[in-house]
Amino acid sequence: MAASSALQKCAPYALSLLRIVVALLFIEHGTAKLFAFPLTNHPGPAVLSLLWVQGLLEVFGGFLMLIGLATRPVAFLLSGDMAVAYFIAHFPHSFFPLRNGGDAAILFCFVFLYFFFAGGGPLRLDAPRRRGRNGRSGVGSGPMTGAPRASARSPRAALTPCASSRSGHGSMRRHSPVGWHAPAARPPAGHSTWRPIGSTCPATCPPRASTPSP
After folding, report:
1. What gap in Å lies between CA 193 and CA 173, rounded to an integer?
2. Total domains, the chain
């Protein structure tokens, strides 16, 4: 169970690592088409030709995937691009990808399609940043959604004078979610106790009659 939990925590970072490696390999195909690097004997294509446009897509699209900027729309575009490239440049030569040399195009197509649905992982440029307590982005925030932590302080309950039918002695009490706390102040003259607003005591309470001493 512990190993499975640890693997699940590392899964998003493995997704980011996969995105980075795939992007580097994809950029390499583009530089080979445009700049004959690392294939020195590969002639450069003519400007505005179909191979030249494909090289631009591989270089710039791969760079956006590498840094993780607009990951999902770029991945969707590159997935469709690889599907079109396979049926134009590879499939006419043979039905089998190993013979027509289109196995890399198929892999790129479905890996980019997976990135479109799964995203690029947390290690990307457009990843949402969490908010801290002071409202600034960074570590030390509350939940993963980026919502600020709620304050632990509870608002003070308003008090109103009321005559108690059971206590029989003058006091002032204040109600809070954690219990009753007696403040240092005394109730006004003619009133015996204090109650929170919203109790069953009437709004105006008559003063308690004084008991004559024997």
Report:
1. 7
2. 2
**In this structure, is residue 152 part of a structural domain?**
no
Q: 193 near 172, Cβ under 8 Å?
A: yes
CB atoms within 10 A of CB 72: 14
Q: Which two tokens stand for residue 138?
A: 């960074």
184, part of any domain = yes
User: CA–CA separation, 175 vs 189, rounded Å?
Assistant: 21
- Give the pLDDT of residue 177: 46
Full-model pTM: 0.60
Q: What is the pLDDT of residue 54?
A: 94
Rg (CA), the chain: 36
**Which residue has tokens 């024997």?**
214
In 3D, which of 209, 153, 161, 165 has the Cα closest to residue 187?
A: 161
Tell me the C-alpha distance between 135 and 88, whole Å: 52
Q: How crowded is residue 45: how many other Cβ atoms within 10 Å of its Cβ? A: 15
The residue range of the domain holding 84 is 9-118
